[in-house]
Amino acid sequence: MTDFQPAGLDRIELLKSLTPEERVALSRQCSWRHFHAQEQIVDRSSESRDVCFIVEGRVRVVNYSLSGREITFDDIEAGGYLGELSAIDGEPRSASIVALTETQVAFMSPRLFLETATQHPAVALLVMRRLARIVRSATGRIMDLSTLGANNRVHAELLRLAKPDLRPDNTAEITPVPIHNDIASRVSTTRETVARVFSDLARDGILERRGNHLVILDFRKLENMVEGVRGD
Amino acid sequence: MTDFQPAGLDRIELLKSLTPEERVALSRQCSWRHFHAQEQIVDRSSESRDVCFIVEGRVRVVNYSLSGREITFDDIEAGGYLGELSAIDGEPRSASIVALTETQVAFMSPRLFLETATQHPAVALLVMRRLARIVRSATGRIMDLSTLGANNRVHAELLRLAKPDLRPDNTAEITPVPIHNDIASRVSTTRETVARVFSDLARDGILERRGNHLVILDFRKLENMVEGVRGD
């Protein structure tokens, strides 16, 4: 319990509608732990159904095929939470959670999480919104896996990463340069395919690496490459 | 309003924890409509964010690629509901809804749905459970699309359909015989692939059509065919 932070849950977006006193009371009922980068926070095969509140740091939710092939899902920043699926339905973990940086986690029991999430309408709404966002993203991924080839899935992932930075001059930067293996995991292909697609795009003047940035030189053209195929 | 049924929502599983009086009050605030088989209940491109309670009949949630290729998702029976994603996040519909039989629907506004779902803890929990189930099923589908070939996805879908009927003698029946096109939509392949896989399985003594039933003669063997590949 040396990691216990009475006001630690104040940083958690889900609980912002509670009073500071309510959050302190919840904090006392959580288990607090610190993790180093690359340390496993929750193993997929573990029996725990606790919800993890990320108080400091950044974590990655990773799903594996039976053979151990990594199929990445999502990165969660400080202020977020994860692991609610098992708390809600009592079923086994669907994924493992790994620390990407030094990370402080508050573990909350399923009983306490469900009590908190259903007794406070504002919290209930946020839990539903997050689940809805996960459903939307999974549905989009199913559509892409069903209708796009591997090359175009890499294109679609680049568009997704670059979109927040899209500028009026039709360029966008991705910082830092994404790791080939991460993209490969996210779109269910191999690292080699990602490397090949990157060098094809560079040759065609659509993509350029500049130090720590990956620059999309022609966002619309890349978008059209994906849309053209999605419409096939 | 000729279709209005004061006690119609009594059949809705989500609302069973409310009092009969609370359900009648909600019923009065819904719009009630009757649909014939094959009639469109909600168009994907519609502006409506209403939640649909299926009071009588059966409906299908259908997603399409831009080109109009059908990618089926789910069938919902009387007592169920759907369309809550748009009510929760205010985003456009992710799918269309079509009546499979004569169907009675009560449409509830997003505002009233969210009020009901967040003010009643038992209702909130059921909404979260349903979303969690959708996430689990989508995640499983992403894993299958990422790791299995089309043939094995047809096998996996047959296992899913047959599992509820699995008997001690290692056989199982699917009734009625599934339509090739429906399976093709669900696992993102073509009708021709489904037909070919069925005839391969029949030749190998794993599958047999008997009138209105499709009989899995060796469930374990079919299971091993999928597990063997999932583990690759």
TrEMBL record, chains A, B:
CDD domains attached to this UniProt entry: CAP_ED
For this protein, the record's PROSITE patterns field holds: CNMP_BINDING_3 (PS50042), HTH_CRP_2 (PS51063)
Per UniProt, residues of the HTH crp-type domain are: 148-220
Could you tell me the superkingdom of the organism this chain comes from?
Answer: Bacteria
Matches recorded under InterPro entries: cNMP-bd_dom (IPR000595), cNMP-bd_dom_sf (IPR018490), Env_Response_Regulators (IPR050397), HTH_CRP (IPR012318), RmlC-like_jellyroll (IPR014710), WH-like_DNA-bd_sf (IPR036388), WH_DNA-bd_sf (IPR036390)
Q: What are its GO cellular component terms?
A: cytosol
Give the keywords, sorted: DNA-binding, Transcription, Transcription regulation
Gene Ontology MF terms:
DNA binding; DNA-binding transcription factor activity
This chain's protein is named: Transcriptional regulator, Crp
Q: Which residues form the Cyclic nucleotide-binding domain?
A: 14-113
Q: Per UniProt, what is one Pfam family of this protein?
A: HTH_Crp_2
